[in-house]
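Appendix B, example 12.
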Amino acid sequence: MKTATGSESVPPKAVKPVSKCLITSASLLVLAACSGDLAPIDLSITCHIGSYRTAGGGVIDLAPLSTPALRWRSGDGRTGRLEPDGEGGWTHQLGWTDQPHPARFALGSCDDGRIEVDGMEGLDGEASRIDFPITETEFESGGETLVGRLILPEGEGPFPLVVLVHGSEQSSARQYYYMQRLLPARGLATFVYDKRGTGASSGDYTQDFHLLADDAVNALAEARRLGGDQLGEAGYLGTSQGGWVAPLAASQGGADFVIAAYGMAEGALAEDREEVLLSLIEAGYGDDDAILAGGRALAAAAGRLMASDFSDSWHELASLKRQYRDEDWYDAIEGEFTHEFLVRPIWQVWMAMPFFDKGTSWDYEPRPVLAALDIPALWILSEDDREAPPATTRVILSELQAEGAPIDVAVFPNSGHGMIQFDLAPDGSRLETRYAEGYFDLLVDWAQTREPADGDGDADLQ
């Protein structure tokens, strides 16, 4: 799944939120960038990282990026980028665009623990760093040592606990994932941990959903051990690829609820297929059943090749490429990996095979797991998600609701992967400006009460 807002170590682009170091590391052009951890955070800005509370009770979080820059986020979803201007100040950019933002931040010295904000309605003035109770820990899982952190809200518990299961990032969640602070600032305890093979955790990076689910189960147990009677009901928040992992972890028991955001209720191969079909629809071929059938056939052959560890479907894919490569719509096809298979010779794909193998659970089917869950679940979907197209997921969730599954569904309009809202530029590209209004509110309200609240923004509740 895409990683637009998991650790968000790399900011999204205007049209496609991130490079394709995703489920499969499929793009041959970016394999080197996908193969290791990010560079350490620039020390000149680390002292500003944290959540700050304004005099009026609002929250602003400052999180690091992999470059010498910060991303600020407010509790209502507004966001922007701060970058040193070389003269002791900061440049201010709107969302993930290169447009200037009217807000101005004065971060002061590292010892201040305060920031000044101007130009942010409802958040102007001085804000003080929130001093969260934090416990660092290590725990064992499947023969590896994982490094985690429990963060409690201010005040007296017990607090609802959310274990963060982020997407396919290979960066340190403890270092980059802003939710570890934004949720405690709103009254939820959080447990964040570096997945195996990332950050300070041992092991090899993997996209084996079953193995990752086992790690999440052990993370929940460790959080409960650390938090004791300071913790109330506990569950998972799985974003993007975590939308597969978190429900699977919840199915093993021990959780009181599960939240999946911008994930899919289909298997991993379906993500590529849905991206292929959506790319054809957006290119103007949505009314041509024959073209859509051709896209499905190409995606199916590419999927069989991926799922078989490159041992099956070579000849079928080569035959389909010859059949369709001169069609006008052929070059419009995108996808999680199908696009790469279509534009490159088969021998190049074969040579890159070692980079593709991340242990992805291609055979995992989430629907039976979701149908068997007897704990409350919330699915939060982006209506215009190009990275995890939600159409079929919405149908599956609706069917499960009709069968009596305790699932709530919220769909945010005019938002893409990562719950990021956008404006359309004159050329049709997306200018990503903020998080969907009400997204953070919905997470907090539902985790605390299992009920959406009236003030949860633009969400279409189903």
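The first helix runs from residue 31 to 34. The longest strand covers residues 231-239.
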